Amino acid sequence: MIPFSTSYVAGVALSEVDGEMKMLLMKRVKGGYWCHCAGGVEEGELGWQAMVREFKEETDIDVTELYNAQYLEKFYEANANVIELIPVFAVLCQPNQPVTLNDEHTDYKWCTLEEAIDLSPFPNQHEAFRHVWAYFVDKPINPLFKVNMSKSVL
Questions:
Q1: Integer Cα distance of 33 and 27 in angstroms
Q2: What is the rounded distance in angstroms from the CA atom of residue 95 to the CA atom of residue 63?
């Protein structure tokens, strides 16, 4: 039997950089690959709360506009023998959003969709990026996707 793991969240930050919409990728120290923001849900946290915390810890971005991206990253983690199911969030940032990385990352880049796909190694990342771009850049954002961050319980 292969168990499911639902203890992680992921988020794609979007910002208008020099007049063009871009998404944030960061280069991880562990593995040396480019990725979006992700991390574990801590005891007592809701998924969206973990995402807000992870953005603050990894990038020093204060999340004020958070959306349920309506997408689950899913993949088999061979070393742990689990299927990971990871909800993806979209974070809308201020134009030219500054970023201050923590020690988990060595570099960051605001990317076009094409650049993000070229930099990131995993097919699930590519699909998540395409999905977020389609529903948060290419068309008007559905207000039903917005996360009410004032609620502590569902």
A1: 5
A2: 13
